[in-house]
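Usage

Read records sequentially. Each one opens with the input sequence:
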Amino acid sequence: MKKLSLTGMMRYWLVFTVNLLVLLTQSVVNAVEVKDLYVAKVAVNSQSSNDRNLALKQALRSVLVKVGGQQQVLSDDELKKQLNRYNSLVTNYRYERANGQQYLRASFDPAKINDLFVEASLPIWGSLRPQIVLWLINEQGLKRNLVVPEKNDELTQAVTEFIELRGLPVVLPNAELAGGSLSISDIWGRFQQPLISASQQYLAEAILVVRVSDNTLLSQEQLTIAEQCQLLCQPAIALDWSFISTANNDETQQFSERYYGTERSELLSQALNDIADDLYQRYALTTGDNNQFELEVANIDSLAHYVQVKDFLQQLSAVQSVKLVSAVGMTRRFNLTLLGSKQALLASLKLNSTLKQYIDPLAPEIPGSVPVFYWEQHE
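and closes with the structure output:
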């Protein structure tokens, strides 16, 4: 084994110290592990076998959308062929009742559902998903109100239904926490720094501002028509949104085009689904190609930690299989067979603080080099 010179040892410890400080001071990217991705609840009229079968089929559709991340998966020919196999995919079901309505709650086999996507070469969105804080302003006439979870209106219901349908963790700030440093004018004006400051308490990976209006977002022509409309027609409603990613200090605000319609909740659902599709493009995993990817974990100092790291990698939805390639000192190199691109894997890892990438600030970037990570040990 080659010995390090005194200069080499000093440089090694300098690099180690610098990078340790970087790791310790690095901002944490937050995500939420979404539960019940393979569970769906569907309204039913009765517990008859006919209604039950229809509900199970609809529940399977809902699960496919949650796992696949977008409604378009239901148009895939391969998946459509599988919809009649719901009895072989369901693991259990039960009936529930809420607010006078009866529901069937069904659970499906995760491995079998994932296999359907692999066989159809369709993307899978894993259970680790970005946490989003939603600042939602509802403008009615000259009055603007922040939509909060305490107020169970059509807009909060639309958000709740969206979370259930798409499996995306969205939090509406409650009235008490929202009433501090951020004003309604700050939110309506989409002023970036006040929004970021006020959103820090929610540890969100992204900030979303949605504005719904029957007044200032409409053109003069639309306002004139609305005034003439009275009770003979429904006045126009407008909506727009902006999106700020707080991951990796990327705080560029993305603005949408304006949506128009006559129903506030429908416009909101449409916008939220478009936003989900945008996030899906970042984090979903393409299953069509099995890609090989190598990485090193540099601080595995025991067999127990090795087992933890390997189990962690194996459980990632982006990873099909894990193989140990080499072990030198406390460094372990793994070869991963991915269900998609390495970019999708790295994007998913950025949402998790368990495995953090080590970057040497004194070393030049080498294309194709094996990335090095540090395991955040949890005893």
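Summary fields computed downstream for this record:
- The chain has three domains: 12-31+286-375, 38-119, 131-283.
- Residues 89 and 113 are 7 Å apart (CA to CA).
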